[in-house]
Structure prediction request, 400 residues.
Amino acid sequence: MEKETLLVTNVRPWGAAAVDVLISGDTITEIRPASRQASTDETTTVVDGGGKLALPGFINAHAHVDKSWWGQPWVSYGGEATTQGRIAHERAQRDKYGIPSANGTERVLREFLRHGTTATRTHVDVDLGVALDGIANVRTAADRLGGAVEVEVVAFPQDGVIRRDGVLALLDAAADAGAHSIGGIDPCAIDRDPVAQLDGLFEIAERRGCGIDIHLHSGGDLAAFEYELIIDRTRRAGLTGKVNVSHGFGLGQLATDRQTALVEQFGELGISWTTVAPTNSAPLPWRTMLDRGMGLGLGTDGIRDLWSPYGDGDILQVALDFAKLHRVRYDEDFVGVAKLATSSAAPFVHRSVHDVTVGARADLVVIDAENVPDAIVRAPRRDLVIAGGRIVATDGEVTI
Prediction:
């Protein structure tokens, strides 16, 4: 069967000169200077980009798409505003709101598409209450959308690893069933046994060949201690390029020389970082992290869930928060931030290339903006979203 072709005319990738982008199947096959009268055959669908800015599809490198009550009646905030309090509240209330479910996850993924996100790394709760059901629901939801949002799963032990007998076995089963990574959480504060948690996670990762993506919320010296343990375990296990730290707010609280020493080792071992850029956190040494070869990605975290009523799935808003937090002012730095949400985040979803370039998966976001800084500062409506060669959203509304 001949592949369907799509021609997106008169768009400006990254704000450069206008081009026409030819897509065959799910791949960008040609980029050529914009033509007033693009020649096509009857099998080609032509879409006029109107001279607007074009970016690669956004990559949400840290999400929790299994936990949202998006699309349901408003759920009032309850429980204690601590990590332990949020865990307890969620465990007590989630069944009441049908969490997790394939329908709830699909609603979140549709919001991702509406905002131009075409790939995500999502943490999915694995615990004694839901077992692997959340992962099954996420995969069902992604399948319903025909892979428009490519989903990479991290099996996530939100309620702790060691303190709940049986969680390590569930993480092992998830990795055996195809989870790209297994997660961990605050080995000191939650399990209160960092050696046992990391021993368990790294043993599974070594045996199954999966990655590790660990939530760390601690600050100050405790944060540095956890980072040092992870550095040591990564080096001893030979898991270079397979470990990611999620959140890791404590890194920004450390003295510059201590930050630099840690970042040097993170870069050497390919330990990457994902942040949701909360504006009340300490800025990360992001330029140093990139200079030392670290991967750095942006994510939305939870979206209207039992942890927080905030969030709408718009990674461009996260990029704006990141820019504000790090006092970005110059155009080249705005472009660097945009790349954190797009092209340079490719490794977080195991892509070798993710850009408006020949050979890449055809994920394209068209925005009515003068340039990249303008797009970040205003976060305007996404006028056209193409995912895997399919038009999935126009004028800010999902069409599939």
